[in-house]
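=== RUN LOG ===
request id: a7f3
mode: sequence -> structure
chains: 1
length: 235
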Amino acid sequence: MTAEVRAFADANELGAALADEVLARYDASDGMYLLGCPGGRSLRTTYRALAVRGRRLDRLVIVMMDEYVGAPPDAHYSCLRFAHEEIAEPLGAAAVWLPDADDPAAYDARIEDAGGVDCFLLASGASDGHVAFVPPGSPRDGRTSVIPLATSTRQDNLATFPEFGSLADVPLEGLSVGLGTISDARVLRLVLHGAGKRAAAARLLSLDGLDPSWPASLVHDHPDAQIWIDKEAMA
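=== RESULT ===
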């Protein structure tokens, strides 16, 4: 099995199209709609496109993928701050969910009790294919847990958060959903755009199934997964 690939001219065109799909799925749903979201750069054009539509999505629950352990809520790298400022507040979402480092397993139970994640938006680490904070070699059935951050993941975060002065400033632990948590979602949409993701795109597109050394390849092992990519990342 391989994930379907959809190509776009640039990141803005990709983000607009993905925003339209999210809204269509939201409108076709009843009750709370659980949208799994990463922080960082890759989905920013999608979040902005959703905000530009001017909709108030009061049934939307933002299910964040991860957070740095011990991150102050106002820190420049805080996923909680990002979720509120860049997703929930512009969209009028009902709630933002984040896992609790004191009881990570409760996050999976909360998601299951709410009927599961309707759609998980994903990004891939440029150097190691991590999704959320899930590092290479992680189990296919992994659940939400506190994870020591791989050096390659921390190096990627230097680019994601330029305010980090050096690798020593990047936290050593993250709280993250697992591959099992992600794969339980009804729909997966993985986004790759820009020249910085060319190597990651080439590696992902060379695979036809889950390769534990490249966690983002989970999309090849899901019945409704797509890779959304722009021309620059495909080059």
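=== NOTES ===
Residues 4-234 form a domain with the Rossmann fold fold (CATH 3.40.50.1360).
The helical segments are 11-27, 44-52, 79-91, 105-113, 151-160, 179-183, 198-205, 231-234.
=== END ===
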